[in-house]
Design goal:
mainly alpha, Four Helix Bundle (Hemerythrin (Met), subunit A), two-stranded parallel ribbon, two-stranded antiparallel ribbon, 70% helix, globular
């Protein structure tokens, strides 16, 4: 293990809910009982995403599972958003360990959800796969920028993890009403439309971010 001191990256969040959310999380962290720890919250977040994926997978035959999926998204928000805050409030930070575990758990969580949607029939498997690939590529770009620029970007275009959970929850409620949407006289799966729009949005974000970061790194290390 290197003895070089770890420099924690600056966290950048531009989503509109971030200020209220941060204050609320700090308030909750100060009131949690001592037996609740950051690792337990991270495990809870992962289990919640596995539950969400399972609920999507069975929702065609059991529509009520969509309501359980929404509850799972709320539990995931609680665990995923609060684990780091709790560590900071209690001054028990483990920056490298926390960063690694938190974000590898996020990747598995998204995998569970997209696998459930692809299995469910609410989303075409090819669309689910395309979204998952786009998400993972953007995640790689974010983590590379965190290492190279010491800047960890939590949101783009005012959309962060909390907003994405809210969109997914709203879509889950819409599935109970009608799993299809009409566009230009044709009916498509609601989650296929959302998945395609999301995939395009991620790739656009990826290209913009890559261009920005390459420019910053090029200027930071000019050839002599």
């Amino acid at each position: 293990m290197s003895s070089v001191e770890f420099a924690e990256a600056q966290r950048v969040a531009t989503n509109p809910l971030v200020t209220i959310e941060r204050r609320f999380l700090i308030w909750m962290a100060g009131r949690l009982p001592g037996w609740v720890g950051s690792d337990g919250l991270t495990a809870l977040a992962l289990a919640a995403m596995a539950l969400v994926g399972l609920c999507f997978a069975i929702a065609k035959d059991h529509p009520g599972a969509l309501l359980v999926a929404i509850a799972g998204l709320a539990i995931n928000w609680f665990g995923d958003s609060l684990d780091g805050t709790l560590a900071r409030v209690r001054r028990q930070q483990r920056p490298r360990y926390g960063f690694y575990v938190d974000h590898i758990v996020d990747c598995f969580g998204v995998l569970f959800v997209m696998a459930g949607l692809g299995w469910s029939g609410y989303m075409t498997p090819a669309v689910a796969m395309a979204f998952l690939i786009a998400y993972f590529i953007l995640s790689i770009e974010i983590y590379l920028a965190t290492y190279c620029l010491a800047e960890f970007r939590l949101s783009f275009w005012g959309v962060g993890p909390t907003e994405l959970r809210l969109l997914l929850a709203a879509g889950s409620l819409a599935l109970l009403y009608d799993p299809r949407v009409q566009i230009l006289g044709e009916r498509y799966r609601l989650f296929d439309v959302g998945g395609v729009v999301g995939t395009i949005g991620i790739f656009v974000t990826l290209l913009v971010s890559v261009r920005r970061n390459i420019r910053l790194l090029y200027l930071a290390e000019p050839l002599q």
